[in-house]
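=== RUN LOG ===
request id: a7f3
mode: sequence -> structure
chains: 1
length: 425
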Amino acid sequence: TDATGATTPDGYLIRWSSVDFASITDPTDGTFVTNSSGNLNVAAGAQTVTIAGLTQNTTYYFKIYPYTNSGTNVNYKTDGTIPQTSCATTVGLWEEFEVGSKAGYAIGNVTLASGSWSFSEALIGNSASDTKNGNQAARLRTDGVIAMNFDIPTGVGYVTVNHASYGTDAASTWHLEASTDGGTSWTAFVGPDVTSSTTLTAETFLVKTNSPVRLRIIKTDAAGGRLNIDDISYTAYSPTLPVRFTTLKAVQKGSGIELTWTNAAEENVIHYTVEGSADGRSFNQVGTVTARLNNNNRADYSFVDVTPNSGDNFYRIKAVENTGKVVYSAVVRINLAKKGAGLNVYPNPVRGNEFTVQLSNLPAGKYMLMLHASNGQQVSTSTRIINHAGGSATENLSALDLKPGVYQLQINGVVRLQKQIIVTR
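=== RESULT ===
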């Protein structure tokens, strides 16, 4: 977010390291730092930048320095609090189900891009009703199982699986299991079974083993519909793994706003700080919530801001670990001043991988959020069913599979509304 004040920056220097924050040295006034490995200049107003050429399965640490002027007159801001953050790169989409074919549900092995998998009551689906990224996804019916016939030799940290209901089928339940003895015995992760919806949703599990490991996915319900599984990725094993926020929502509760969030695998977290802002730039502490699990499993939390602003309210969650490391969630926005029914998007244009949809003053009921491209074609992976309790609330949608362009976001239910959004990169 751009700095504000009497003197605004001409640009920003982003510096990064794969070691730690302390390894990132402050720049020196009068010596302009050019773009190079670990250094990138960003123009004021850009607010979003892509850093390429990083190493997979690696945690990176970032600091940002505003500056004025250039060349030998450059003046870097190195006093006060230097904004910093960190994140871990994955191995990319390790298994996309785009390679290989299996037309029937009978048990059999399939050679995929990652290796040989056993499919039982499962096939490779490529129909229009298969909810997927790309052209193919795994499809499981009752008692369906897909399992690796090989090990990931160096172990894994987090495992992320995209899942959805097939077409308009009823919701399914499923869970992920891992084996470190070649498939003789299996351990389920994490907690209760996962429930699918009509939206392709990423579910993250903390497996965290440095032993050779193989994975399998089991459809656990007997009465649910068919289940699509797509785009599996994992991170490398590490004794300590970063916080993974998977959801953050804001819902109007009377005159207050309730924040709910999920840490996919809580570990080494001291507390969460809820931060609020009226403009999305300057955030202040609203409250704190003590971490209660730290058992490597999913942890769900909530907090009510009883004195929100009368207009815009921006929120983010800061996780503070016992090592001093700080991890921020995405930002959500909710506005309590809007009196009529409304549909809004933040940010718009969408420049990152996610955006927030705000429902304003809508009656309680079931709504369907749908995204359409400029040619009218529905973007199926961004469809979501919302059981709205009434009033104002936020929902997060992913823009990972969206190409730059103009889209129409529609909501159908008791009230029908639409909003134009622009996706940039």
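=== NOTES ===
The mean pLDDT is 85.
The CA atoms of residues 73 and 124 lie 61 Å apart.
=== END ===
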